[in-house]
């Protein structure tokens, strides 16, 4: 009996092994692994992934992730995806290094692995998709101010702390492209330390020091909200436009009051869409992730990889009165 | 009376405050216009209210590091209440957070009174606990201005007799404190406990209970400020007023409240808070490099403390001399 059972079991297993790749050929199964389930930002990314799947036709999206934002939870998810023999994993990671062994195992089994939004160390993925790049962000924040100032004028920057790496790089990149925006005169940079009260005070100080100030650029989510409130309280809505980087849910009030005409941040829908497109290209269309490669990603154009196999998706997405209602409940 | 005031540390601080304003005016003339001074007072109002609470705590030889965390927790509760029940009158929300703040302060007080843990340890612990609770009840998410109801945001900004309600809250608190300190047994017992706890026991004052009351009152004021803060900046998140407890303690020290307990006045506390408030509001407009701003704030605190300790010194000598004469 023992031998017979083993034989049957072996045959069944062999059949399963033969059957599953055959099934996979019908449908490319792409797993979108997120930091944790139930976060608006990632739900929106999944929506984008489904959009890409519908466009490609033969793609099945597996939207998954742990219930809390831990690396252990994601490792479990990855292991189960390896067992399911998916074709590709696109992950927004909770830890740069901890996921590398699990993802390496996945790549050894022939699964395409890319990271997006929050990256994995280079040895643990084939490419990484950044939502944007520092030069694009630096350009966008001054463009947002300039677009509402056809005649130019004084603008000031309200940053986080003097030592915030991201903000300092973005402001540096902004300064580089300033000559492209004639008439835009940056009068100064102040620091709100990412505290609501200090940012509010600094914004009020800017409006006092520069009575002709036309815009405040705040590339930080605490600063932009506080500056918008300061403009409302100073009765300068319409005279001073607050712009920069912020989240739609946090900025909805500022758009409504008119203190902010527009602001920017990544669009999670586009991000999920692009990640899916890239995973499909790599796993199914034979695209190779190597420095300098240009990989198409549908309506988002192409992704150019740098020497670390990283690429930037696009300009930050602009939010204004026309689309804030749609996005404020997402993230 | 006038002569006594002229020699007091409050007078020295008032003179320093006026000198500071004039100095700022040389760099930015708009600073000393009445409208701007009103704005500075309004901006300092939360600091004034918290400094009053901290004053009575410090006077009783304790310290409360949890005021800012208490403020943030009460502010978040106020915001969440408003989001959950948009129709709830603002006065109900304020009452609720003042009670909650008082309860959180009382929790500090009970640990100090009944369990006998040093105040700095208790409040260092509750500081973290209160911040943690904010995270738990909010899931780390922000409560944003579009989610808050209009009356909730409007109250501190509403102008009454030429001043915003936020400023009036501070004025009412100052008046109430002046009355309590000067006219009630409780107000006097704070100083008795801080000045000489052993003597206080012999006069029938329960030291622990007095400290408990100081913490409860300080907590209730934090609760009130929590609402004012959140509605003024129209945003509530875990880290609001991060590090604000240090500003509050600095304002007390500048205001001449002795960290050793027993010495302090309402007027001094108000001046201390205004001094910091003026510096905070002046730095953005006088065009000083942000890298220097922190150093300047710190230097101002040390200068104020030196002035205070100097004005305290003759008083000490005088007592010794009288004592010497008597023997």
Structural class designation of chain B: mainly alpha
The general outline of chain A is: elongated
Show unreliable segments of chain B: 316-321, 323-327
The description of the largest β-sheet of chain A is:
6 strands, parallel
Mean pLDDT across residues of chain A: 86
Residue share in helix of chain B: over 70%
If you consult CATH, what is the topology of the largest domain in chain A? Rossmann fold
Count of DSSP strands of chain B? 2
- The ordered H/E elements of chain B are HHHHHHHEEHHHHHHH
Q: For the largest beta sheet of chain A, what order do the strands appear in spatially?
A: 2-1-3-4-5-13
Strand percentage of chain B:
under 5%
Q: Which protein chains make the most extensive interface, counting residues with beta carbons within 8 Å of the other chain's beta carbons?
A: A-B, 29 and 28 residues
H/E series of chain A: HEHEHEHEEHEHEHEHEHEHEEEEH
Tell me the span between the first and last alpha carbons of chain A. 59 Å
Distance between the termini of chain B: 29 Å
CATH class of chain B: Mainly Alpha
User: Treating each run of at least 4 consecutive H or I residues as one helix, how many helices of chain A?
Assistant: 11
